[in-house]
Amino acid sequence: MSVDLGMPGVRSQPAATPHDPLRWGPSFPDAARGTLANTQMRANLRHATHTIRDKRLAVTAELPDWEALRDAGSAIKADVMARLPELLERLEESVTARGGVVHWARDAAEANRIITDLVRAAGAREVVKIKSMATQETGLNEHLEAEGIEAAETDLAELIVQLAGDQSSHILVPAIHRNREEIREIFTERMGDAPEGLTSEPRDLAMAARAHLRARFLRADVAISGANLAIADTGTVAVVESEGNGRMCLTLPRTLITLMGIEKVLPSFADLEVFLQLLPRSSTGERMNPYTSMWTGVTPGDGPQEFHLVLLDNGRTKALADEVGRSALHCIRCSACLNVCPVYERTSGHAYGSVYPGPIGAILTPQLLGLGEAHGAGSHDVTATLPFASSLCGACYDACPVKIDIPSALVHLREKGVHADAHPSLTPMGAGMAVAAAAMTSGTRFRWATRLLTLAGRVIPGTRIRRLPFPGSLWTRSRDLPVPPTQTFQDWFASRERDAGRGTGEGA
Amino acid sequence: MSAPDARTEVLARVRAALATTGAATRPGPGPGGGASAGPLPHDDGPGTDGHVPADLRDPHAPGPVPREYRRADRSAPVTPGRLDLFVERLEDYRARVVRVDEGGLRAALVAELRDAGPVAVPPGLPGPWVQALQEEGLELLVDHPDRPLTPAQLDGAGAVLTAARVGIAETGTVVLDAEPDQGRRVLTLLPDRHVCVVLAAQVVADVPTAVDLLGEHPERPMTWISGPSATSDIELVRVEGVHGPRDLRVLVVEA
Ligand code: SF4
């Protein structure tokens, strides 16, 4: 299945490397058109999301106090947001007291610059990395490469994605859009030291990665990590993982640089008892992930002797300023909402055109970028269309371990985006809904629609709700254009495409 | 060092964001915590213009943290049921578990390590364990603080033997906190087999109890281990042992 012409057989997905990790590719409706046509990707995704979903349900059902844990997690996060300045200062103090150095970055460029300078100061030309959403968000790897520093991803999935020149398609299993045959081909072609006769057995592929990376771990002087959380009171930082590549990065190199969004701080060590129950069970569907590492500044004689914590804003304060949208900052990146989302399952992570895909991406990405700020025109702007990448079925809310009310936030952002947009033609709404509406079932839709309509009406005081904008309009639409339950999303989408332009102005 | 202006600006943005929304309505537990304090939305009577009925109020508004979840009694002595659960959950995540009484530990240690090759050990391992291995003629690599083993030496070790700080029954987790009987973090990372001795009295029921205990020394580097290293990144097929030890063996010692 490889291509001749001397071209590499492996083709990147998506084809072009994005220049902005938060906003690449076409708008959601346009991108979805492409990904819906990729049956391999859709089959892989369906299998993955359903498997992880079932595991998650089994291990959350094991805990009689699961709902109480969610309530605690939600309340802790709300408390963190309200006390963020105080907690960040406290964290800085604690980390510094233990021999770490804290840096602050207003945006992605500043974070990348700080990290590049630190790597240079350590005299390193290559670094090892442990999967980090934050460094993906800032496009750190590309930046380092441009500065002549080689960054090796060490998470197996990230390694696959990096070697293939792809973008991640899922927060937890970023290479889920690739199957074993494709991965064998990627390794054979791009790894450089892939063993002769490498088979497509997952074990063989994993062992090839182990051998490939071990030498790099042993010689690395600098590691770059993300953080799942950090404790303000003690300065303790934690990374939750499965493979042990995190432990390698956090233990072997002399210098450790951790990039963390400012919203990841937690008040006290005791809060771990909530998040170390919520996160693994919601994420991989395990009672506990194989490895969790915690470190507090520098420990003489054990692990990195130089520790830098870079605290990143990059739009988080924009989200914080929105009372409803702020809840997107509660996210602990477990990816449970992706695995239950009917729209995500059908369109894949790549359609969202951001390192943050799925339901959480639909509310987080537009806010980090600044909703309604100039990012291109109207319906083709990701910040305007992403909030429509949902059917509002409510499954994400039920799955979310910190009870983020994603449907309400979506409705709120839709309103906000439409109003901030200079073109009140409501095309983003029409375009987005066309993709999202298919997966809805009337029961849940009604439940959310009534509630959300009220919420949407209040979040912009003085807004006159014109003839049922959203989701009321969806009601009307679905009555005009019923979607038979048996019709596949693809068929439905195709028929909508043929019907293009019709009804997109509805609700005005 | 970071540019001081970035710090000031980020903190100013955070404060401004909280002030515009008046969200910091609940002062934090610390003195003067929280930013501005607008009127609490809860203070408004029902039906006040522009306000939301209770059931539609923002569910994300800050308030007291309810901690209604379970927390076992930390001082409750370990029960056979708790140990059984610990063992079952460890095995479920494909660790090998051997249950022994104190008298049987010596033989179990030898049995689990005999065929491994050189065994790395932390500096503060209980004397009788070390003796047992030495008398059996096993080659030991001791990680002295003043003569630490190099990564290459550890990479060449066949196994590592450590104690543990705490075991968590409900999740099948062993936590190491880098004390001298467990050693530096790297010790349990590079050798392919990790043999870990957990005393029954160290096994707690649940995560909150473990966090409570570990919170006595939050500054220690910690490694929470639940089964051997694993990945499911390729078609979700579970493969054990990507980078960490592929072989985790837990000896549970009952008094
Ligand atoms: S929004 Fe909730 S469910 Fe989705 S990734 Fe974040 S924490 Fe997980």
Task: Explain what this protein looks like in three dimensions.
The complex is a heterodimer of chains A (508) and B (255). Among the domains of chain A are: 155-220, no CATH class; 428-501, no CATH class. Helices cover 48% and strands 9% of the residues of chain A. Chain A contains 23 helices and ten strands. In chain A, helix 3 crosses helix 12. Chain B folds into two domains: 1-24 and 32-69, no CATH class; 80-254, Rossmann fold (3-Layer(aba) Sandwich). Chain B is globular. The chains are: A alpha/beta (508), B alpha/beta (255). Chains A and B meet through helix 2, helix 3, helix 4, strand 1 and helix 8 of A and helix 1, helix 5, helix 6, strand 9 and strand 10 of B. Strand 9 (291-296) of chain A pairs antiparallel with strand 9 of chain B. The structure holds iron/sulfur cluster. Iron/sulfur cluster binds at residues 282, 331-337, 360, 399-402, 404 of chain A.
Top keywords for this entry?
heterodimer; A: 508 residues; alpha/beta; disordered N terminus; B: 255 residues; Rossmann fold; 2 domains; 6-stranded parallel beta sheet; 4-stranded mixed beta sheet; 12 strands; binds iron/sulfur cluster
Task: Offer a quick outline of the entry.
The complex is a heterodimer of chains A (508) and B (255). With 508 residues, chain A is α/β, with parallel strands linked by helices.
Radius of gyration of chain B, CA atoms, in whole angstroms? 25 Å
Q: Helix proportion of residues of chain A, in percent?
A: 40-55%
Q: Between the first and last Cα atoms of chain B, what is the distance in angstroms?
A: 53 Å
Determine the most extensive contact between two protein chains. A-B, 114 and 92 residues
Per the principal axes of the C-alpha atoms, what is the gross shape of chain A?
globular
